[in-house]
Design brief:
This protein is an all-alpha fold. Helices cover 62% and strands 1% of the residues. It contains 15 helices and 3 strands. It has helices at residues 35-47, 71-77, 79-107, 114-121, 126-144, 146-159, 162-167, 174-193, 195-220, 243-253, 270-298, 311-320, 322-356, 374-387, 394-421, and strands at residues 2-3, 6-7, 12-13. The chain has a 3-stranded antiparallel β-sheet, with no helix packed on it.
């Protein structure tokens, strides 16, 4: 029997993009992306994940790509615990996830991403692959509806006076809805133009969003007192750590490396580019959190209770000046746009891959003249526009956290099962450990 991307009778794996029945030589060919573009797209997918944790941040300073969102870790765990966790967790949690993505993403370079892994690992249980696709796409599409809302709130912060913000109607209105929908449509058009455009845009935004923190680190470095990092008093004991919000904060800040699997077919030389991009993104994410946190906690006498949402921006303003703090707020808004692009790209390519594997209607696999999954992008955009009408996403966000945890269990199960059931599978990159 023949199925898109594999020949079942001979148990051979062939990448989906290499075997397409009736493929037209004149079909649209999208440009491939390299390691740097992929790494930056992953950076925004990972470091933006914590925006789920507290939607209230839309009314103050918010989490986004970069060191936004670390306040909850200090508030719930203390300075020393937060510093230690952000130094170790990328290698304890993020590195294994990125290595699994590098191995299986290069072995199955197709748009369905993690869905392909689960289907290949459990061929007699196709419902598991379908479930994996539903969990990841639903989470991503609903997640994406948050970013235009946050961008809206940042613009209100920059252009409205405090009194105007307090008196303004915070409930969705038609003009607010039109702004959110218009922003979503404009960003969807950039996705339509190609993944290389998204990658280049993400690199630009990454530079713009990190510069104020580089300035802050350079200025604050000379004000650091290392003694402020060390635990002192009862507030720094293990008993004082609120483990649930502390671990949840770390979990979401350092997750979503698997989203890169949906771009595998769009990457130049996946066997080389994937592990390289994973390594770069893990290091980038780790430094993006740890260095600003080291400086912020080392050059101020702030109490643990002061670390509420947005407090990092307050410290930046105190240390580097109000102009730098304003730049941080502007960078947060830009970062949300980049996170939107990263998430929409991942979701659209996943839908295209699921359609190629027969889980969804074939129309979702059709490509535009730029080689992008046109109808998959439109479907995601439709869901986002509908969700822009929502007044409260917190209940959905809690559900999405649970869904993502389930999808990770399926991914790791697929990885182990493939190591045992298909030891001879061609893996351009292979994690250097035995199969026992």
């Amino acid at each position: 029997s023949f199925k898109q991307g594999k020949v079942d009778d001979h148990n051979l794996h062939l990448p989906a993009f290499e075997m397409e029945v009736g493929q037209d030589e004149n079909a649209p060919q999208n440009k491939k992306i390299g390691s740097i573009q992929l790494a930056v797209i992953i950076f925004f997918a990972v470091s933006g994940a914590l925006v789920h944790m507290r939607f209230q941040v839309a009314c103050s300073y918010a989490f986004s790509g970069g060191p936004f969102g670390i306040e909850e870790a200090v508030l719930s765990g203390g300075v020393f615990a937060a510093l230690l966790a952000f130094a170790l967790f990328p290698f304890v949690w993020s590195l294994p996830e990125s290595l699994v993505t590098a191995e299986l993403g290069s072995a199955y370079p197709e748009a369905s991403g993690t869905v392909a892994w689960v289907e290949e690992a459990f061929p007699n249980k196709p419902y598991l692959a379908w479930l994996q696709g539903c969990l990841t796409w639903t989470s991503g599409a609903t997640d994406n509806a948050i970013y235009p809302v946050l961008f809206w709130e940042y613009m209100r912060q920059l252009f409205l006076e405090t009194e105007d913000q307090e008196n303004s109607d915070l409930h969705p209105t038609w003009w607010r809805f039109l702004f959110l929908s218009g922003t979503s449509c404009a960003l969807a058009y950039i996705n339509y133009r190609g993944l290389d455009v998204v990658g280049d845009m993400s690199i630009t935004i990454c530079v713009l969003s990190m510069i104020p923190f580089i300035v802050f680190i350079a200025i604050g470095f000379f004000q650091i007192q290392p003694s402020r990092w060390l635990p002192s008093g009862s507030s720094s004991s293990l008993k004082s750590i609120k483990w649930a919000p502390f671990l949840n904060n770390l979990f979401w800040n350092l997750n979503s490396f698997d989203s890169a699997s949906c771009f595998a077919a769009e990457v130049q030389n996946p066997g080389r580019s994937f592990p390289r991009a994973m390594f770069i993104s893990v290091i980038l994410v780790s430094f993006a959190y740890e260095l600003p946190l080291l400086v912020a906690t080392g050059c101020t006498n702030a109490n643990r209770e002061d670390w509420v949402d947005g407090y990092l921006t307050t410290i930046v303003m105190e240390v580097a000046g109000r102009w730098c703090g304003a730049w941080v707020v502007f960078a947060a808004g830009l970062s949300n746009l980049a996170m939107f692009q990263s998430e929409m790209s991942s979701d659209a390519y996943q839908l295209m891959g699921m359609a190629e594997r027969g889980f969804l209607p074939k129309i979702l696999a059709q490509k535009s003249k730029y080689g992008t999954p046109l109808y998959a992008i439109l479907l995601g955009l439709f869901v986002i526009v509908v969700l822009n009408l929502s007044q409260n996403l917190m209940q959905l966000i809690e559900m999405l956290n649970f869904n993502y945890a389930l999808s990770l269990l399926l991914e790791y199960s697929a990885f182990l099962r493939l190591r045992w059931s298909k030891p001879d599978l061609e893996r351009p990159y292979r994690i250097p450990f035995s199969n026992w």
